[in-house]
TrEMBL record:
Its EC number is 3.1.2.2. Residues 1-10 have a biased composition (Pro residues). GO terms for biological process: fatty acid metabolic process. InterPro entries: HotDog_dom_sf, THEM4/THEM5_acyl-CoA_thioest, Thioestr_dom. This is Acyl-coenzyme A thioesterase THEM4. It is a peripheral membrane protein. It comes from the Bacteria. Its main location: membrane. The lineage of its organism: Bacteria, Bacillati, Actinomycetota, Acidimicrobiia, Acidimicrobiales. It catalyses: (9Z)-octadecenoyl-CoA + H2O = (9Z)-octadecenoate + CoA + H(+); hexadecanoyl-CoA + H2O = hexadecanoate + CoA + H(+); tetradecanoyl-CoA + H2O = tetradecanoate + CoA + H(+); decanoyl-CoA + H2O = decanoate + CoA + H(+). Residues 128-190 form the Thioesterase domain. Keywords: Apoptosis, Cell membrane, Cell projection, Cytoplasm, Fatty acid metabolism, Hydrolase, Lipid metabolism, Membrane, Transit peptide.
Length: 233
């Protein structure tokens, strides 16, 4: 174990710094995928990134549970809102896997505005379908906060009606549909804002779990494995 740097890991300074770095990593992914670079530039990039990664691995393990717990207690206000779980993939402002969502609550619906970019491209000129699926899964997660239930995704079905455009603002709008015992059914759709075109529809079954289960997951989680080298390194 090594000393963690000041200020304390939960401070606003660290949080803001992480959010900035998260955005920088995401922007890097788009610049890297979307632009030519010389071998010299790419090698320099590798050296800088490998150096920073080597600095981070010896640091203490970080837990995301405080933010996760806070997230479960949030009452999302009407209109635009933000959330505290910065590491959350897709909607987390500090997550390298974030999609830079702008979140809104409209009644009991959640709307996420998003513009997909270079690194999201799958087939030429359109988003990878898995990115769209991840978008729906995560945005559905906010409906759990609206209906105040703890649940896991059990099934997620996406119907891709049209190519998902890049570089054009999209609206992902989702809502509670009905509940049957522990099975919570959610539905939603993705549209392009400029044209109003329907791009995809989604249905999900979330399975409600005892909120205490989350506490048990936290308490019983084994220490993470040593990740200090990539599987192919
Ligand atoms: C207060 C606010 C909280 C908000 C909180 C925010 C925190 C911030 C979250 C960030 C992220 C969010 C958005 C990403 C959401 C994920 O990514 S969740 C992660 C992905 N999903 C998983 O890991 C789930 C993996 N599966 C499991 O853990 C277990 O199968 C489950 C889902 C807990 C169910 O297991 P179980 O409790 O043993 O359930 P079981 O008794 O077998 O079945 C109960 C009922 O559900 C049905 N069922 C079970 N599994 C399934 C399934 N997969 N599909 C359909 N039906 C099923 C059964 O048929 C049964 O139905 P009935 O017979 O009652 O009619």
């Amino acid at each position: 174990m090594t000393e963690t740097a000041d200020p304390p890991p939960s401070s606003d300074d660290v949080r803001e710094s992480r959010q900035r770095a998260g955005r920088a990593i995401r922007d890097l992914s788009h610049a890297f995928i979307g632009r030519h670079a010389s071998v010299e530039q790419i090698d320099r990039l590798s050296e800088v990134l490998e150096g920073i990664t080597a600095e981070l691995w010896p640091q203490d393990h970080r837990s995301r549970f405080d933010a996760f717990d806070r997230e479960r207690d949030i009452d999302y206000p009407q209109g635009r809102f933000t959330h505290d779980f910065d590491d959350r993939p897709v909607s987390g402002t500090a997550s390298p896997y974030g999609l830079d969502l702008e979140l809104h609550r409209v009644g009991d619906e959640i709307e996420a505005l998003v513009t997909l970019r270079s690194a999201h491209e799958g087939a030429p000129g359109r988003s990878h379908g898995g990115v769209v699926a991840a978008l729906f899964d995560d945005v559905f997660g906010f409906v759990l906060g609206v209906i105040k239930q703890s649940a896991f995704t059990g099934e997620l079905t996406i119907r891709y009606h049209a190519a998902t455009p890049l570089f054009s603002e999209l609206a992902c709008r989702v809502r509670f549909d009905h509940q049957d015992g522990r099975k919570i059914y959610l539905v939603g759709e993705l549209t392009e804002r400029s044209s109003g075109n329907l791009i995809a529809t989604a249905k999900a079954t979330f399975i409600a779990v005892d909120p205490e289960m989350f506490a048990r997951l936290t308490a019983e989680r084994p220490p993470p494995p040593d990740e200090s080298s990539s599987p192919t390194a």
